[in-house]
Amino acid sequence: MMTRAQIPLPGLNALAVALVGSVFGACVGLVGPTSGAPGASSNPGTSGNSGASGTSGSSGVSGTSGASGTGDPNVLLSCGSVPTGSPLAVPLQRINDTQYNSIITELFGSTVAAQTAFPAPLSGYLYSTYSGANPMGEEQVQAALDAAESVAMQVADIVPACSSVSAETFCATSYLTTLASRAFRRAATSDEMTVILGAYTHARPTLPYGESVAVGVETVLQMPQFLYVLEAQPTAAGAAPTTLTGAELAQRMALLYWNGLPDQMLLDAASSGGLADPNNRFAQAQRMMQDPRAHGVFTDFLLQWMKVKGFHADVHTADLQAALDEEMQRDIDHALAANDGLLDLIDSQQTFVNSVLETFYGLPAQSAGPTDWRQVDLGAQQRVGILTHPLLLAKFAHGQIGSPILRGKFIRVMAMCDDISPPPAGAQALQDTLTPMGATVREQSQARLNSPTCGFCHKLMDPIGFGFSAFDGVGNYVPTVGGQAVDVSGHIESTSDLGGDFNGVRALGDKLAQSPKVQACLAAQWMRYAFGTQETTADQCTVAALASRFGQQNNSLPALFAGLSALDSFAQRRALPEAP
Amino acid sequence: MSFRLTRRGFLRGASGVTLALPLLESRLGRAQAASVPTRLVIYETGEGNLTTRWMPTAQAGDALQLSEMLQPLLNHQSKMVVISGVSNKVAHMHTSNDHNMCGHTVMTSALIDAAGTGVFDAKAMVQQGSLCLGPSIDQYLADQLKISLPINLAVGSAEPAENQMWYKVKPAGSTGDNPVAAMSNDPVKAFKTYLAGLSATAPMTMSTRADRFLSQRASVLDSVWTSFQSLNAKVSTADRLRLQAHADAIRAIEQKTTYVAPAQCGGVTQTVPTNWTQPKDPNFVGMDVQANLMIDVMVNVLACGANRIVTLQDTLYDDVKFEFLPVGPVTGWHAQVHNDPTLMLGYASNNDNPTLKAGFLYYASVFNRLLDKMDAVVEPNGMTLLDNSLVLWISEFGTGQTHSVTNLPVVIAGGAQGQIKTNRYLARPNATLGDLYTSVLNAFGVPATSFGYNDMPGFNNGGIPGLVG
After folding, report:
1. Which residue in chain B is spatially nearest to A196 when comparing CA positions?
2. Does the beta-carbon distance from A222 to B216 stay under 8 Å?
3. Considering A447, B19, B132, B350, which has the largest number of Cβ atoms within 10 A of its Cβ?
4. Which of A254-263, A447-456, B344-353 is least confident?
């Protein structure tokens, strides 16, 4: 089931618009379930509430706001006191550019450089890892061909010489079999070797030995067995789930935590059958997370979750941009190391500044320069974790002016995992008729909320965004205007624990950091990133299981990241639904 | 084989110190002049010529003074021999129209197997696709030199036609007749067939690694495509669709990968023509482009050592458009050659027809372009490709208007590594095609005394007097 909000298919957008107009409550829903089947919940944030004794901080407040029209069905799914989840349906994933580069280095050493193997993932998907964001059309195939050829031409120089011409076939077979088995993350089959050696044999009459072997390498690097994460799977919808082999588990973990190939310890655990044990997987994951490559994966996930991956604001100078990028990295690093990572990430008063940011934040100049960083406390109001990081404030803004819509939508979609349909056709034109020229941002929002057509969805966004009113589009904290305190009162329309009024981002951050709904949402987001797909109602208990582990570990981010591999669900696949 | 070097060639070969040598060394990395084989090139055009304007005026001591119709060749006069008086006597032993019997025999001087029985039948009508009972000179020479079959190229159609020289020859060591020689009128195909990937020295050191990998692309993509097949049964329907799209994209890219390796000779890289689309109409426009591309192929074939013998037949003789000439596009070229009264345009004789002059001068300019290109290739022996070749330009008729088989317009250039003394005009009123080709064989060291049909007196006189030696 695809989310209506993020998948950029025209037909689906049209469908979503139609739903807005025709189905009461269609604005919200984790993944937009339409079945309404009993027992199916669309909201993982509520899933731990029904007698979830094992979850920490679950203080179910479902239904407290009682607001009609939020569309939150709030149907609780019973996942048991210790949710275990269910087998996952993972669509075919292609390795990404980072993984391609890393694997090339692992296979051939640092002297062989890989060029960009794939064009940038398609935009419009929640995460770049989504299967649909990484198609293999002619453009991508051509890029992969060019990259493979480029690598192969370098490899031609490092292919070990063969002792004699008569031994060449043996030498080439030996080298390419070893290589293919590493590249494929499992032993290459004889059929696959026939294909690879066919390319070698074709080349050998006209190319030198080393280059001919490299032509075999070029073939390996373009084969689906290399480019895709292939796993045994039920081939028919409705078929019984399959259990992943040790090699498949090692492949999943290495690509997930390292963007690379399994190391010997992981391979040993795979071949001994140890990876079948969730506790062993968790231990392996914790070991793997000590590697800097894992750090890179989590940083990438969090930046994409915050929507600021590669984001550069026009309102920021290059110096400020560089400083903000590093501040963000330091914030992430701090959160990853913190005991309560979620709290640290979205609620901390602390951040890091250099000389550039001292000026930006209006702090006394103590830094020796752009490379001299120190941790500072910006105060409870100016700094609420990454919620008030200037990168996010500028991202969810229009130029100098912050956007309550975009800021509210970020909280609603990314932190609460509620779904917002795209605006109906003519929304902007309608907005223009609601308020006169020169109306303030708040007046415009109020007009939207009062309009039945607009308010239907905007009441889910704008009132949350109001809490950010003391921050402009650059990220400056502007608590008063003309001597008057800026109105920062906000409201979260929700039947969940988060529903209700709040005052300012500080209060919002405090709410979010304590919320099981946010906790479960972050678990769902990590799963989405990791498996490149949107969960379905069938995955609710898996999300709950991961959220449960997350909560039990005091919302520690490493516990969340490593916890995924410890789920029973991680080792199983269920059948994908039949293609439309 | 004894070498009679031209003065220029002699100086180069003997002293090893000329202005050209440093260039030679840098190109080929050789300090010492090497021997290269002599090449045979034949260019054949249709409809004879304007004989009175073509015929050189005899000068003292066989000195050559180029006639009006040979003026485009002025730059190469010192490397040319013009011969008049050569007759195709065998042609008129057949029952046929003149185009068939003259065109089929001009390179064979042999009887035509008009009946298709392998036995000469004077009453059988020669067909466009009829073959001769004896080999053409290019085939015969290749057989005598024990080298691979010659390369036959065409401007215009390459289908069996009146002006084409079809042959059978039994090469040394062969147990059966060769098939009819393939003739290519597609410069792209000719490049792919004869040149792609070739180089003058070791192929592996001349082309780049990028070229070599490029040459394997289609093969690699085909292998990759094959590797998708085993996955089909192992994935879900949704995944299968995704893989299918990927496999389809690979096929699409593979089909676009029509890589043709360049040919590299003497430091020059030649790539497959990209500006040529093979026409379907036999009387097409664009013969000038086709001829130029074919000449490029020919010269590179010779320079790269892909073959020692190449022929280029311009098979267009009927409705030739010459659309690229100021007089073009021409209407009724064939009829104008015949002085058709309806196309006389007021000229007393077709010798005065500016269209005919322009057309035949165009053929001379094509031949000149061939010589230019060949003379620009310096070979390891210090001489040019032209110096190392015997280049013959001939037509099936003498005077096109009358379909005469006397005074065929014969021009030889290159001198065959000094075997033929150049810058001469040889008026040889009793010479025959058999004599001409006997001399060609002699220039290549083949001790022939006759060529082609020789069962009656007068068809062979032991060669063109004074041409070789």
Report:
1. B223
2. no
3. B132
4. B344-353
